[in-house]
């Protein structure tokens, strides 16, 4: 699992996100022959009209449209204009020479892409905040926001007139998971803590000691546990599939041996299996299936950033495939070795442009218990370590221990916790698998508060998730040679665990 856990050695794998926005452009009405000249994009390219041909109703807090993802009485929608869009029936994209906006549309700050344009392009997103109304103590749908534009093309038919009607409607409620038929907790949310994390990839040691992305979330839908007699919940795998988005947290920026890399962790299918969670003890386990896309990047822009300054804040992507489009910051991380600003505010909405150098398929067996992987040379590795014959049993020093956590753990310059280093070089991290040794990572669980069977929800605990796992080769000599793949991986992830009903 090449990664950094959100919100997520030239690789590392990582954790979690909410159901990401559904996507589909809104043509805006008018003749079908001109619909593709100019279209509306609301939040993402996948959000379609759901109220007639030109209307978009957004439920407060629905992450498919409300970019802030919060049930807070206001919907925040990203609105942008896209031109020369392919794939619309009966319409052939032509050169768009001009776009005239209605007075209301221009007043909101909506702008067109650079014109004239002959290829698909989108203008920057404008964040439109729409408050719900209140009447007699109840929330009501907002007043409609009406937008309009007229696009002109260089060939006949020349004119495409488009409208868009936006409304914010009250939340439908719920936690994101369906109710538990047994009456117990219906959802477990795991959010990565801001210190004490560690992600180790491959046998070389050069891709060890990365931090996980603070704020990254993973959700598991629950059944079978009840209010008084059965504290052990099992995963509702079908519902979990819907509760998590397409990616496991935001992209993950990192450096391994000086190689800037941006990792995008997509869920495999199924996303998660065999999950269990104990309301009485806090113990958690689940298999998370991931596909990690590895993008080689620039040292000054390792991954695209979201301009939202803190977790939960909305903004626009500063680069990548969705530059200028709406985003919500879902994780933050400090990138050791980055040139310029090392602090990254990250969002699943802001992904790299181009094609990945390689993709890893990884099964991540998360547990609050103990996870082990035995040597020698586990996971098809060609070596156990690069300790040159000395033991992998020393306390780390130098760049592998530039500071300590509040618990006194060594923190690497890269930002993750150091485990073990070579006896012959205490600045080089390693896995102790030579001679049949084991990689051991020990998790922790705590009794959720208020303790079961107290009827109070949410119940929360501070826990530590861990996993040891195998990482295949990516097919990229740069990545595989630096990291030591195929080979073992390990992670340690302190989390806040929240049980909701």
The main β sheet shows up as:
11 strands, antiparallel
Tally of domains:
2
> If you compute it from the alpha carbons, what radius of gyration comes out, rounded to the nearest whole angstrom?
24 Å
Distance between the termini: 32 Å
The residue-averaged pLDDT reads 90
Structural class: mainly beta
Shape: globular
Helix content: under 10%
The counted number of beta strands is 32
List low-pLDDT spans: 1-23
Keywords:
four-stranded antiparallel beta sheet, eleven-stranded antiparallel beta sheet, 3 helices, disordered N terminus, mainly beta, single chain, globular, 2 domains, 501 residues
Task: Please describe what this structure looks like.
- This protein has 2 domains: 23-169, no CATH class; 187-374 and 440-500, no CATH class.
- Helix content is 4%, strand content 39%.
- By secondary structure, the protein is mostly beta strands.
- The two termini are 32 Å apart.
- The chain has 3 helices and 32 strands.
- Strand 15 (217-223) and strand 16 form a beta hairpin.
């Amino acid at each position: 699992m090449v990664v950094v856990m959100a919100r997520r050695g030239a690789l590392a794998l990582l954790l979690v996100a909410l159901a990401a926005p559904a996507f589909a452009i809104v043509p805006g009405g008018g003749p079908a022959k001109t619909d593709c000249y100019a279209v509306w994009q609301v939040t993402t390219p996948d959000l379609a009209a759901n109220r007639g041909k030109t209307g978009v109703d957004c439920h407060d807090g629905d992450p498919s449209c409300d970019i802030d993802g919060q049930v807070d009485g206001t919907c925040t929608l990203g609105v942008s204009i896209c031109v020369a869009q392919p794939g619309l029936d009966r319409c052939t994209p032509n050169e768009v020479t001009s776009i005239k906006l209605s007075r209301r549309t221009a007043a909101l700050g909506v702008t067109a892409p650079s014109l004239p344009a002959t290829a698909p392009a989108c203008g920057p997103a404008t964040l439109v905040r729409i408050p719900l109304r209140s009447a007699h103590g109840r929330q009501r749908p907002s007043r409609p926001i009406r937008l309009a534009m007229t696009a002109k093309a260089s060939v006949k038919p020349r004119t495409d007139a488009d409208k868009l009607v936006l409304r914010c409607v009250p939340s439908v409620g719920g936690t994101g998971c369906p109710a538990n038929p047994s009456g117990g907790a219906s959802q477990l949310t795991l959010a990565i803590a801001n210190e004490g994390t560690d992600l180790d990839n491959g046998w070389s040691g050069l891709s060890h000691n990365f931090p996980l992305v603070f704020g990254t979330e993973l959700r598991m839908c629950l059944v079978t546990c009840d209010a008084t007699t059965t504290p052990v919940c099992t995963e509702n795998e079908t519902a979990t599939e819907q509760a998590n988005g397409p990616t496991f947290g935001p992209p993950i920026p990192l450096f391994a041996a000086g190689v800037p890399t941006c990792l995008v962790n997509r869920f495999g299918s199924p996303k998660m299996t065999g999950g269990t969670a104990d309301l009485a003890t806090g113990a958690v386990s689940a298999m998370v299936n991931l596909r990690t896309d590895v993008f080689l990047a620039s040292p000054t822009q390792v991954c695209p950033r979201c301009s939202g300054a803190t977790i939960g804040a909305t903004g626009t992507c500063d680069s990548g495939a969705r530059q200028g489009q709406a985003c919500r910051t879902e994780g933050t991380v400090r990138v050791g070795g980055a040139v310029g600003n090392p602090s990254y505010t990250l969002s699943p909405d802001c992904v790299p442009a181009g094609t990945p150098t390689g993709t890893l398929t990884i099964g991540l067996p998360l547990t609050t218990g103990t996870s082990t992987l035995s040597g020698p040379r586990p996971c098809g590795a060609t070596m156990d370590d690069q300790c040159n014959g000395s033991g992998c049993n020393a306390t780390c020093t130098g760049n592998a221990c530039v500071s300590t956590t509040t618990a006194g753990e060594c923190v690497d310059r890269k930002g993750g916790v150091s485990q073990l280093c070579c006896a012959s070089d205490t600045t080089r991290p390693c896995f102790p698998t030579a001679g049949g040794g084991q990689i051991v990572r020990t998790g922790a669980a705590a009794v959720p508060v208020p303790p079961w069977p107290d009827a109070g929800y949410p119940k929360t605990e501070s826990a530590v998730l861990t996993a040891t796992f195998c990482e295949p080769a990516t097919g990229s000599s740069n990545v595989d040679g630096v990291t030591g793949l195929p080979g073992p991986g390990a992670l340690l992830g302190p989390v806040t665990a929240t049980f909701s009903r």
